[in-house]
Amino acid sequence: MSTPYILVLFYSRNGSTSEMARQIARGVEMGGMEARLRTVPAISTECEAVAPSIPDTGALYATLDDLKNCAGLALGSPTRFGNMAAPLKYFLDGTSNLWLTGALVGKPASVFTSTASLHGGQETTLMSMLLPLLHHGMLVTGLPYSEAALIETRGGGTPYGASHHAGADGKRPLDPHETTLCRALGQRLAKTALLLEPSRG
């Protein structure tokens, strides 16, 4: 039997969502679980465009088995007009077999996003990612206001999930509050997954 892990699944174009994923993974490990970082390939308007099966840099591409076998999921995307990015949506659209078999029912899930502008659709993007997870029967773990950084933040941070304000050029680094909230989200997800793991009872 393999070690239980939290799948940190994301799409990142300019690096901000990827950095959030790394901080969430650190939080997962602080919470006592293994984190598995995975991404999805970009999609193309060219009908036969093919990405290499292994990316040149960064996280490996996710498989349906990565998702099926996880103990919990953190799902992240940059904002695209208040919605998740198309590559992540494309991956999720291919999870019908997992839905039919109930493979994700009862597993905890969290979401995270990065935007160029402070009010650039962070909350609607998080909600867009939660919708398919709810259809899969996953248990949503957000960020409670007991996290002081959620009240003190002047950048990203929502009760629906972690967020980051990357700035118009996409180069603003995660500030201390955003980093704290990413780690808190990962830690909460891991602790919830441990409570739900049948073998841990």
From TrEMBL:
<comment type="similarity">
    <text>Belongs to the WrbA family.</text>
</comment>
<protein>
    <submittedName>
        <fullName>NAD(P)H dehydrogenase (Quinone)</fullName>
    </submittedName>
</protein>
<dbReference type="Pfam" id="PF03358">
    <property type="entry name" value="FMN_red"/>
</dbReference>
<keyword id="KW-0285">Flavoprotein</keyword>
<dbReference type="InterPro" id="IPR005025">
    <property type="entry name" value="FMN_Rdtase-like_dom"/>
</dbReference>
<feature type="domain" description="Flavodoxin-like">
    <location>
        <begin position="6"/>
        <end position="189"/>
    </location>
</feature>
<dbReference type="GO" id="GO:0003955">
    <property type="term" value="F:NAD(P)H dehydrogenase (quinone) activity"/>
</dbReference>
<dbReference type="InterPro" id="IPR010089">
    <property type="entry name" value="Flavoprotein_WrbA-like"/>
</dbReference>
<dbReference type="InterPro" id="IPR029039">
    <property type="entry name" value="Flavoprotein-like_sf"/>
</dbReference>
<dbReference type="GO" id="GO:0010181">
    <property type="term" value="F:FMN binding"/>
</dbReference>
<dbReference type="GO" id="GO:0009055">
    <property type="term" value="F:electron transfer activity"/>
</dbReference>
<dbReference type="InterPro" id="IPR001226">
    <property type="entry name" value="Flavodoxin_CS"/>
</dbReference>
<keyword id="KW-0288">FMN</keyword>
<dbReference type="InterPro" id="IPR008254">
    <property type="entry name" value="Flavodoxin/NO_synth"/>
</dbReference>
<dbReference type="GO" id="GO:0016020">
    <property type="term" value="C:membrane"/>
</dbReference>
